[in-house]
Automatic annotation (TrEMBL):
One of its GO terms (biological process) is shikimate metabolic process. It comes from Thermococcus barophilus (strain DSM 11836 / MP). NADP(+) binds at E80, G127, A128, G129, G130, A131, N149, R150, T151, E152, R153, K154, I212, G235. This is Shikimate dehydrogenase (NADP(+)). Residues 111-188 form the Quinate/shikimate 5-dehydrogenase/glutamyl-tRNA reductase domain. Homodimer. One of its GO terms (molecular function) is shikimate 3-dehydrogenase (NADP+) activity. Shikimate binds at S19, L20, S21, T64, N89, D104, Y214, Q242. Residues 11-91 form the Shikimate dehydrogenase substrate binding N-terminal domain. Signal peptide: none annotated. The active site is at K68. Its EC number is 1.1.1.25. Involved in the biosynthesis of the chorismate, which leads to the biosynthesis of aromatic amino acids. Catalyzes the reversible NADPH linked reduction of 3-dehydroshikimate (DHSA) to yield shikimate (SA).
């Protein structure tokens, strides 16, 4: 029941109306008997929105595009990852102080670890945008990582994390796909469209293929990888695991990720 003690959490971004986060987090509050609600806020003025979070005592936030980087300047403290990556997707209001975290990298790592070993593996990461940066930072600590990006400069900038950066070209794809154990698509290619960042002919059976794009659930890349016989991992697993980390930061509860996935899939059907 909503009453005077109900805590408020939310998502800020633009647009937010297709987000699955409200479905997932409200289901979790109910399941763990936590007196809280989660809403999506379509925000135009980020600075005023963050002031509002403090003024109203909103307990925590998720942050999505286009504000993951811009929000840093309005926060009181940053976690080590958020500072290194330069991007925040989770905010905790700790007694009036807003603390920024980034759970994208750990979310991707946990998604991968459900299906495969990661330590010491050779990882080819496509994309050096917000998500690519977070994944490069996290995986660089335990695997050998090559990052290819359309804008080569952004891939090279990630060399500060100890990865190797290069241009996303057909030649580099061919070279590094024959080297890699795991390939991750962190570009937006394939999101609600038929394109894939990898020509089917370059895929081979013993490759693990992880696409962080989760709409559609089976992207073109994942379908072709499945047809070739690769182990495939969809982006909903990352969405779930990064959300689980946010939930833990807010409430101290480590949620049931299988439950979260079931709720997200139900929510997805409702929104179609
Ligand atoms: N599963 C999850 O939990 C999760 C979490 C975060 C994001 N995502 C998804 O991951 C994707 C990337 O998100 P983001 O936040 O990193 O976005 P972003 O910061 O805008 O980065 C977009 C990335 O895609 C590349 N790209 C875009 N169009 C391309 C094209 N035509 N050819 C080659 N590369 C292209 C960009 O390359 P340039 O640098 O050259 O522009 C950049 O590397 C989105 O689809 C998003 O929905 C999923």
């Amino acid at each position: 029941m909503i009453n005077a003690k109900t805590r408020l959490y939310g998502l800020i971004g633009k647009p937010v109306e297709h987000s699955l986060s409200p479905v997932i987090h409200n289901a979790l509050f109910k399941r763990y008997n936590i007196n809280a609600v989660y809403l999506a806020f379509d925000v135009d003025d980020l600075e005023s929105a963050v002031k509002g979070v403090k003024a109203l005592g909103i307990s925590g936030l998720n942050v999505t595009m286009p504000y993951k980087e811009q929000i840093l300047e309005f926060l009181d403290e940053l976690s080590e990852e958020a500072r290194a990556i330069g991007s925040v997707n989770t905010v905790v209001n700790r007694e009036g102080k807003l603390i920024g975290y980034n759970t994208d990298g750990i979310g991707a790592l946990k998604a991968l670890k459900r299906f495969t070993e990661v330590e010491g593996k050779r990882v080819l990461l496509l994309g050096a945008g917000g998500a690519g940066k977070a994944i490069a930072y996290t995986l660089s600590r335990l695997a050998k990582v090559v990052v290819l990006n359309r804008t080569e400069r952004k891939a090279k900038e990630l060399e500060k994390f100890g990865v190797k950066g290069g241009k996303l070209s057909k030649e580099n794809l061919k070279r590094y796909l024959s080297w890699a154990d795991i390939v991750i698509n962190a570009t937006s290619l394939g999101m609600n469209e038929d394109r894939s960042p990898i020509p089917k002919g370059l895929l081979r059976e013993n490759l693990v293929v992880f696409d962080i794009v989760y709409s559609p659930l089976e992207t073109n890349l994942l379908r072709e990888a499945r047809e070739v016989g690769c182990l495939t991992i969809d982006g909903l697993w990352m969405l779930i695991h990064q959300g689980a980390e946010s939930f833990r930061l807010w409430t101290g509860v480590k949620p049931d990720v299988e439950f979260m996935r079931r709720e997200a899939l139900k929510g997805e059907k409702r929104s179609i």
